[in-house]
């Protein structure tokens, strides 16, 4: 199965969601709180609605996983994973450091992804076996053999909720050369483009991390859970990604303590 044939549909989904997002960006919005206390707006819901509507037309037998609405079962071995606004906190505060995430899974494995920043016009794509691209240009992660020289990124220290996670974060901060905060999925995309070496995060949901797997791997990096296992729908939400695969084992040791 070559997932490349579904890339035009994935790009269309990102276009549809991006149109909704741009119409609501930096406009007055009512912000609600979901059960997990994360924020949500009408833009999140409308963007996912338009993507789901198009998928129901184009591939009605495919399953759909999304952040804002219930899982839709499918008869085919394909599932779409949607995050209409990854980085809602950035979106509602007027900062263009969020992204529309679209991924296609085949038999539970992510094989195609689009990471789209609809305000800045940045778009990253990746397809298993076909490499990764940024605005149409092939990209690769950069070499960085030592943690002491690495630039590391995470969305927020608040996502490291448990005492063990906080201690793991502190160990990483002590060893890397630079730590920056913010960005959500954009941090991983910048890794694929060669600007970031390490991303360590926790408390993520499948629609947060699954769309990032093909992008990091096709650009030459590695991404896994904190135990080094492949990420899937049932992962615990602890994610580590590296641009240079040589950093993966040292980071796993740090995270394990």
Question: What proportion strand?
Answer: 25-35%
User: Helix count?
Assistant: 8
The helix content is 25-40%
Number of extended strands: 14
The N- to C-terminal Cα distance equals 40 Å
CATH level-1 class of the largest domain: Alpha Beta
How large, in whole angstroms, is the Cα Rg?
17 Å
Q: What is the structural class? A: alpha+beta
CATH superfamily of the largest domain: Fructose-1,6-Bisphosphatase, subunit A, domain 1
The major sheet is characterized as:
7 strands, mixed
Poorly predicted regions are none
CATH topology term of the largest domain: Fructose-1,6-Bisphosphatase, Chain A, domain 1
Cross-sheet strand order for the largest sheet: 3-4-5-6-7-8-9
Output mean pLDDT.
94
**From the coordinates shown, what is the CATH architecture of the largest domain?**
2-Layer Sandwich
Gross morphology is: globular
* Number of spatially distinct domains: 2
